[in-house]
Amino acid sequence: MPINLLGRSFLTLSDYTPEEIQYLINLGAEFKRLKMTHTPHNYLEGKQIVLLFEKTSTRTRCSFEVAGRELGMGVTYLDPGSSQMGKKESIADTAKVLGRFYDGIEYRGFDQRNVEILAEESGVPVWNGLTDDFHPTQMIADMLTVQENFGHLKGIKFVFMGDCRNNVSNSLLITCAKLGMHFVGCGPKELWPKEELQEKAKAFAEETGATITFTEDVEEGTKDADVIYTDIWVSMGEPDEVWEQRIQQLYPYKVTQKVIDNASDDVIFMHCLPSFHDLETTIGKEVNEKFGDKYDLNGMEVNDEVFLGKHSRVFDEAENRMHTIKAVMYATLK
Ligand code: CP
Ligand code: NVA
C-alpha cells in the first residue's frame, strides 16, 4: 500500500504505523541526499508555516526554519512573549485564526493537550516540536541516525539511561516498540513512565517483535547495547528545586566510559542535546557550585570522554533533525 500522510498532524508516534514511521525516516535520508548533492527541492513553494515556541530551542527552531525555507515556504516564528496565545486568547481561537493564514503549524510548549487542540481546531497539519510528554520529530532524526550506523532498526538493543519518564524517553519507548527494537529504560523506578504508557508500548511491541524492559541495574541494562542514549536530568518547565533530588536519583546513571565498555563493541552514544557534558554552560556551572562538593558534575548525564569520544554520534543526530523535519513537513503538506 502506498503511504499517504497528506493533511495529517504529527503529535505522537502512537498515531503512526511502523510503515509510516519507516517512510518518514527514509524520506529524511532522501532529503539529506538532496541537500548534500546541492539539488534544489523547493517543492512546497508558495506555502506558509508558523512556528510557535513557548519553550526555548536551538535545533528544533532552526531545523523548522531552514527546512521550511529550503522547501520554498514562507516561515513566521513566534517566541513565547510575542503572541496573544494562552494569555489573552485561547489556544482554540489562536488555532482557528492561524489555520486561515498558514498551511502548517509547529508548536513547542508544555501540555500535550495544547498541541492536540491546535490540530483539532486549525484545520491544517500541526507538528509537535516538543511537549512535556513527547518529542516526536526528535524520533525520526534519532532513528535515521541509528539506521545510518547499523543499516537496520529491527532487533537493535536501544538503552535509554536517566529520567525514563521524560518527553524524549517516552517517545523513544513508543518508537522502539513500533519498530521492533529492544528498548531498555535504565533508571530509578520512581522515574519510570506511567503504567498506561508502558502498557500501550507493550501492545505495540506484541505486533512487531519488540521487547520492553525497565531496570535499575546499569550493568545488566547496558550489557551488549547497540545504542546508549541519555538526556538532561531536569527538563524544560521543571522547577530549579528538583535539581538536588534529581542529581541524587540519576548520578548512578551517568554515561561514563565504563558504561560504553559494557555495551557492544560497535555501540553508538546518542543524546538529543542540549547536554551538560562539561562546565561550559551557565546552568552547568551553577549546579556544580551548589552540589559539586558531593558529586562529580563536570559532566552530569554524560562526561566529555563519552560525549566527545569515538562512539558518539550526537552531532550527526543533531544534523538529522533538519533533514527529517523536512520529511515530516513535506509528507504532510505536499
Ligand atoms: N533536541 C532538541 O529539541 O533541541 P532544542 O531544544 O535545541 O530544539
Ligand atoms: N527532555 C528535554 C529535551 C530537550 C530537547 C527537555 O524537555 O528539556
Which descriptors would you attach to this protein?
9 strands, binds phosphoric acid mono(formamide)ester, alpha/beta, 334 residues, binds norvaline, single chain
Question: Could you please describe the fold and organization of this structure?
Answer:
The protein is α/β, with parallel strands linked by helices and 334 residues long. The protein has helices spanning 18-36, 59-70, 91-101, 112-122, 136-150, 167-178, 195-208, 218-222, 243-250, 257-262, 282-291, 304-307, 314-333; strands at residues 48-53, 74-78, 104-108, 126-128, 157-161, 182-186, 211-215, 227-230, 268-271. α2 crosses α13 and α5 (136-150) crosses α13 (314-333). The chain starts with 17 loop residues before the first helix and ends with a helix. The mean pLDDT is 98.
SSE topology sketch:
Layout: H1 18-36, E1 48-53, H2 59-70, E2 74-78, H3 91-101, E3 104-108, H4 112-122, E4 126-128, H5 136-150, E5 157-161, H6 167-178, E6 182-186, H7 195-208, E7 211-215, H8 218-222, E8 227-230, H9 243-250, H10 257-262, E9 268-271, H11 282-291, H12 304-307, H13 314-333
Parallel strand pairs: 1-2, 1-3, 3-4, 5-6, 5-8, 6-7, 8-9
Helix pairs in contact: 1-5, 1-13, 2-13, 3-4, 5-13, 6-7
Bound molecules: phosphoric acid mono(formamide)ester and norvaline.
Order of helices and strands: HEHEHEHEHEHEHEHEHHEHHH
Helix content: 40-55%
Largest sheet: 5 strands, parallel
Largest beta sheet: what is the strand line-up? 7-6-5-8-9
Structural category:
alpha/beta
SS strand fraction: 5-15%
What is the tally of beta strands? 9
